[in-house]
Amino acid sequence: MEVLRMEQPEVSEIAIRLGDFGQLDAIHGQLWASLAGTLNPKGKPVFEVHTWEKLHPFANVARSVDLVTRFMLVILVAVVLVAVINVMMMAVYERTREIGTMAALGTQPGKILALFLLEGLLLGVLGAVVGLVVGGAAVSVMHTTGYTMAWGQQADLVLRPTLELGQVVFVTLLVVALAVLGSLQPASRASRLDPIEALRHV
Q: Cα(161)–Cα(144) distance, rounded to whole angstroms?
């Protein structure tokens, strides 16, 4: 009261906790539209409406985490594409004679293409399953133990990471799709091999 020069006890702040964080901007806009018209004798708004993002510096940390997450997703795409293309190119190179034999026996190029695309699909599915198991176990351990982060003069923040089903499904489908996409060029090359030249390959 002394700091704010209050003569009588007054309410200086009302905090509203939302059940759905996605409604933050909408609720903020509604509150401001309702309260902005209340003015003091000097013609200035009596109320101020702020979101926690404007008041709490942890919002910047949350934005940084989101940025790092998107960056890691880009890295994931690049790694998956390079790895799958490399593996499938080596598979085509090492099986050139087998591909030539299949073509000489009358196997259609479309079937050869489908075989290598199926291999890429299985490679993506296997990688996604292994990643889900290892990543899920790591997140589970971190969620159980928690990660304590010092934050200035405030009490330490304990972070407990979790997995969202939507993100897990999206990343899994992305990895599988990238594996198939990365297999497309090597599979196309294998289907176009000349049987005679392939049989001469050493």
A: 9
**What CA–CA distances, in Å, run from 86 to 21, 81, 126, 147, 181?**
43, 8, 17, 37, 13
**Tally of structural domains, the chain:** 1
Contact 186, 89 (CB under 8 A): yes
Tell me how far apart the 2 most distant CA atoms of the chain are, in Å.
Answer: 99
User: Could you tell me the pTM of the whole model?
Assistant: 0.62
* 198, HSE (Cβ side, Cα atoms, 13 Å): 21
78-94: pLDDT as tens digits: 888 888 888 888 888 88
**122: buried, middle or exposed (CB in 10 Å: 19+, 13-18, 0-12)?**
middle
Contact 189, 90 (CB under 8 A): no
**Residue written as tokens 């289907």?**
191
Is 42 domain-assigned? no
Specify if 139 maps to a domain: yes
